[in-house]
Fold these 2 entries.
Entry 1:
Amino acid sequence: MNPVDRDQRLWLLREALSSYASDPDDPPVEDDDVIQSAVALVLRSARELELLLIKRARSERDPWSGHMALPGGRRDPTDGSLHVTATRETREETGVELEQAALLGALDAVSPSHIKLPRLTIAPYVFGVRAEQRARVASPEVASVYWVGLEELRAPGARQKVEVDLPWGTRSFPCFYVDGEAVWGLTYRILDQFLDRFPE
């Protein structure tokens, strides 16, 4: 049975996203120099809706090395759509198969705001999976995986600040803390957008 048919919360979320997002298909890219990427917000239909997060492994080649993130990555030339990118990357990084999951909708694409970061767009797709869904570290690019309850992200005091040392100086950013790890930057922006669309 489809997870949406089993959990009214996912049905309500799909309805909320359908009235918000104009089209869950690929967002247009006006510049060929911009890298297309996609991430998956995977919601597990447990007693409390839970979101899948990963911690990226440390790598000198990765500008987001060691960061908390949503599963996802760059579009491969063989990916027929960014939805396929989000599905493929989630499987490769966490072992979660989204082909049979419920696609609930899409959020607005986001991009890095600093000129020293890569020029890319990140398309977020929202999926619903069953309560028994498990995730694992399935790639050397991932250090660990987490299921975090949405109520934890909505709780008073969940939004905090983190000081981050960057090559161009130390800056303060809004964040969530998950298991002692700061969720900030692009991932925070996507989650903030999601929680704004689905506040309960």
Entry 2:
Amino acid sequence: MTESQQWIDRGENVITKTYGRYPLVAARGEGSRLWDVDGKCYLDFLAGVAVNNIGHCHPKVVTALQQQAAELLHCSNYFHIPKQIELAEILCQNSFGDKVFFCNSGAEANEAAMKLVRKYSSEQHGPNRFEVITALASFHGRTIGTISATGQEKVKAGFSPMVPGFKYVPFGDITALKTAINPNTCAVMLEPVQGEGGVNIPPAGYLKAVREVCDQSDLVLVYDEVQVGCGRTGKLFAYEHEGVEPDVMTLAKALAGGPPIGAMVAKEKFAAALGPGTHGSTFGGNPLMASAGVAAMDVILNDGILENCRAMGDYLLQQLQQLREHYPFVKQVRGLGLIIGMELDIEGGDIVKTALDRGLLINCTVGKVLRFLPPLTVSKEEIDEAMDIFDGILKEI
């Protein structure tokens, strides 16, 4: 029996079955590569689902964690934390934001944003203005609140009743959004690019039109950039592509280069609604996670990561488009930077399993969209290697 199988058997006895896990037992990672406990090497074009944007175990993040771990692992948010302040300064200096709230995950960041928009609207317009419009095919997290906000029925099955106060409209349809607004609406929350929903990119001008609608109706505009922020689309934040600023933005995944962290960034006008005692997070922005965040953001901003993402994103998109021309079951390839989806007219699960067997990690979302999320540090040679594997799989189909 392999060491991998031994670990899998042990895990089956004690770990909840909340994930459909593949038979890979991860041992170590470096850059775009991941090794299992049996020594097999994989090209990681999933990157921890857009967490490892600067690759596995980036030396600057590892060093920051080691140094901070020797000094202070955790202290209460009742006190001031230098690295937390430093990370907040970096986020505010490089975005529209004025204030940052730190937490531990994307779901928590979205919960904070939903509390903020309701609190702000309650203060400005009274208690009846609490509804949030989100998009069909959206994904905002796994808490009861964030699955209520998510525009996918599959994540809600068995968890009723949902939290009231959410409406869903087709992504990219400004007319539907306008129609959904009523006197109880307080905010619009969107992903600038839908990741879990199938790598859906809005039509040109859509986000600008959403911003105008929110301004006209005094609605708070929230962007969920949990997956597409921190450089994934080739700019630090996805909203920069159209230059349309939100009022509130949520981040997580790649913010600390691997360690768990989340953040809500907001303009002062809105951030002021959450005063002392209205919200909190025991571990949010603690010294260890914040130190990793400072290091990761330094790499993204100063080490040519965004430029490489744009260049390699164009190259990977081109390679996948060429494959589309050869295989009739490939319907469409779409993406921005290094979040790219290949939509099929067949189920994609078996392709993911075959790719795993051959040393390539990708995933499939909404059944038929293969998703490619390599580290933003990926090289042309690594993309060529991945495409050789992938092309071989498609040929067999």
